[in-house]
Amino acid sequence: MKYYVGVDLGGTNIAAGVVDENYQIISRHHVRTYASKTFEELIADIAKAVYDVVDKANLSMSEIVSVGLGTPSCINPETGMLVHANNLNWENVPLPKEMEKHFQVPVFIRNDADCAALGEVLAGAASKYDNALMVTLGTGVGGGIIMDKQIFNGSDHMGAEVGHTKLVYEGIKCTCGQYGCFESYASATALIRRTKETMQQHPESIINDLCENDTDAVDAKMVFDAAQLGDVTALGLIDQYINYVAAGLSTLIVIFRPQVIIVGGGISNQREYLIDPLKKKLIRYTFAAEKIGVPHVIAAELGNDAGIIGAAMIGCQT
Amino acid sequence: MKYYVGVDLGGTNIAAGVVDENYQIISRHHVRTYASKTFEELIADIAKAVYDVVDKANLSMSEIVSVGLGTPSCINPETGMLVHANNLNWENVPLPKEMEKHFQVPVFIRNDADCAALGEVLAGAASKYDNALMVTLGTGVGGGIIMDKQIFNGSDHMGAEVGHTKLVYEGIKCTCGQYGCFESYASATALIRRTKETMQQHPESIINDLCENDTDAVDAKMVFDAAQLGDVTALGLIDQYINYVAAGLSTLIVIFRPQVIIVGGGISNQREYLIDPLKKKLIRYTFAAEKIGVPHVIAAELGNDAGIIGAAMIGCQT
Do B169 and A247 touch (CB under 8 A)? Predict the structure, then answer.
């Protein structure tokens, strides 16, 4: 049996796992870290997490084929450079090279959304498919594109910025500074924003009760909870939200024609109110849907494990 | 020296060329054909054009490595099936297999926009680049995506439908039946449509003179001609048009990050009034343009030869 280590490196959390060649996580380890640490301290924290998780699996580092790091960053896997990481305040860091000072195992690096998509395709919701688009509806809209079971990143690995495709020409301003990005309409944040704008004009809406009339307390789950109770305002908000999600996905469908779209993020468990209607709306919004069809739509299955499994297997990407 | 035949198969015209391994066209042959012909008749016409162009090059079929066909159709190169061709009224036709009955040379098939993009990357405007997007602004918006000098078509070769990415959520109706497609705003047809809508409100515009007050006679060149004469209406129309082109391209840039965008179509020779301002507008409309930059923008160079050269080289695609 071959063993790999996958590390999901967030701004405040290092999650590591030993993954076997059948994509099973056989040990896990979590540690908190801080963006305020120096680069060397953080590298040391990651290295220690790797040693610890290997130890937990009753293995030694010499039995590990490779270590993969998934980070919410702009990566150049060919040069091994982490080009830019907002949450870690890093620019142009040779992360794998630094890691390799700590152990004699090759280290690979990729964007965390790509790792999650790869994990779901190798071992999760999309294991039957070779070509998949994973879209994570959260604070923003993250995306990972897998073609022939390989991560697709475009030229110089700088592409696949799914959330910043245009959906509304000259639309509302996105956090990126551009206008009308898919993310500005299809993130959970966007749903919450529109809910806040709408609920006060609808004092009869249950959403007002669920948040105890504190609009700052509104979250996406409250909107879905209200919809399940038959709240007309919530149902309308969700219907409009899914229109945006479907229309934005249609752009990615006509370009990639993935076999399946994997929906991740906190709201992806809303099967009846999100996943099922999204399937129907994709037909409405996608070019040549009647002739060619549209991809299957499924919810992500692996949660945070997807990122660990995907990161572990980066070294196996051709 | 190795020789290849490329055929650009339109609805009314068969253009064939013998292309050598340095991507030079060494003989050409054009014949008219008719969509009303039977399938067998059309196959025979194509085969005859291939024999004739090889003859013109003073070669024999035994010296030809492969024949490539570019058609304005939906293709599955793996099965060799022409899935759907609007202009020829064909559905699910095994075109290469039928062609191979006429000569003992392997026949390959691809979409004509992909062939043109490949031709420009191998031998034309983008020969310095490996990763390019070609966008043809004509009746519609055609596109070809070349990654690592290979045609990119997405899963099952059904993707890369550049013209039908969404640009304006719930925008105007496209010929495809969907709403707000890139093509509906960025084609030459769209520029003409908006010109017609606008010129009558501006009787002072030179466009009225150029078309002799016959709005049906307006073409894209008249708008650019008027702009060159300083016509404010024309300048405004073109400025708005380039905004749409740039915004639509921004979606493709954030996904593919091509090194270069090749602009084709009749208006692509409008350097000062189209290509140069488009470069600037891409910066305005593209995510992270300040950090990552935007692709170069160049006009296509090879005209119809691009499709012949690209088609000829399909067999060399891995």
Answer: yes
**Exposure on the CB side of residue B57, measured as CA atoms within 13 A:** 27
B158–A292 C-beta distance less than 8 A: yes
pTM of this structure: 0.95
> Chains A, B: CB contacts under 8 A, how many?
121
* Mean pLDDT lowest among A47-61, A69-83, B97-111, B266-280: A69-83
ipTM of the complex: 0.95
- pLDDT of amino acid A87: 66
Cβ separation of A255 and B288 shorter than 8 Å? no
- The pLDDT tens digits of the residues spanning B75-99 come to 887 888 887 776 677 788 888 999 9
| Domains of chain A, each with CATH number or no CATH | 3-122+305-316 (3.30.420.40), 128-299 (3.30.420.40)
